[in-house]
Amino acid sequence: MTNLMSYAGKRVVIAGCYSGMGEACARILTELGAEVHGADIRTSPVALASFTELDLKDWTAIDQVVATIGGEVDAVFNCAGLPQTYPAADVVAVNFLGIRHWSEQWMPRMRPGAAIVSVSSNAAMGYMQRIGLISEFVAIKDRAEALDWVAAHPDDVADGYGFSKEALAVWTQQRGVDLITQGKRINCTFPSPTATPMMSEFTKIAPQAVFDFFSKPIGRQATSEEQAWPLILLNSPAASFINGVCLPTDAGFTGGVLTGLVDMAAFRASLAGGQ
User: Most CB within 10 Å of its CB: which of 120, 152, 161, 252?
Assistant: First the structure.
């Protein structure tokens, strides 16, 4: 029987392979037989087919890295990102604008049946409540114009993290409509708190109660591997009919919120009351 999860003979690229989910993806994909080409601002510890240093804020550098790696690919993994301890404009520039530009440079190089997957966040789970605003931003293609929009909407963008992940979700769903007509797919995941090196940055700006709440109902953070496997699944032939999906990878948190068993309103009230 054909192993639909096998990456033997597959050529893949990963943005953000230094640590966390991206490092786990790179490591597992090499074990699954893939030819893995990575890019990050810091060198990956995984033995890759190639590694290139890349700052996703620099679109010229993105174009150069794509040309350097070259060739066609079977899968694109977008695992790079900045936490909200960075300036909001930088967070949006990396987490959405850079990821989008990187992905769109690979789209013409994607073989039939190829797929893209990006790491969003369950911090973006309310994106449908302001899809008009997010769609307005996503429609801006020029980098400078997009950053001007960010500067002009400080209340909507806030610290940039949730907003950038919402934009990633909306763009994923929009591109899914046209990519599938080319025999290509695009999806993203909505992870809950995950024990990666970035978590230390998150804890600088939010109380522990936030991470405890978003870790419900399982009561612990995910491991990098637990988040990597859904990404690998979504880009595999096993997911050939899954497209334009924002998949919660949160051990039931989203389901609990949507059915009222995890009370988001009460949690927000407790934070507002300083409890």
Answer: 120
User: Would 175 be classed as within a structural domain?
Assistant: yes
Q: Residue 228: which domain range?
A: 11-203+223-251
Residue 182: CATH number of its domain: 3.40.50.720
The span from the CA of 129 to the CA of 180, in Å, is 26
Cα-trace Rg, the chain = 18
| Encoded tokens for 115 | 């797929």
Residue 212 tokens read as 């405890």
pLDDT digits (tens, 9 = 90+) for 118-132: 999 998 999 999 999
Angle, alpha carbons 208-263-155 (nearest 5°): 65
Q: Which tokens go with 92?
A: 């949006």
Residue 148 lies inside a defined structural domain of this protein = yes
**3-state SS assignment for residue 15:** strand
Number of domains the chain is built from: 1
Percentage of the chain exceeding pLDDT 90 = 86
Q: Over pLDDT 70: what percentage of the chain?
A: 98
In three-state secondary structure terms, 198 is coil
* Structural domain contains residue 264: no
Which of 164, 168, 139, 172 has the alpha carbon at shortest distance from 245? 172
Q: Is residue 275 very low, low, confident or very high in pLDDT (cuts 50, 70, 90)? A: very low
Closest CA to 235 of 110, 69, 71, 70: 110
Asked if the structure places residue 218 within a domain, the reply is no
Model confidence pLDDT, tens digit, residues 171-228: 999 999 999 999 999 999 999 999 888 788 777 888 888 888 999 999 999 999 999 9
Phi, psi dihedral angles at 14 (to 5 degrees):
-130, 125
Enter the pTM of the model: 0.95
* Closest to 76 in 3D by CA, of 54, 48, 105: 105
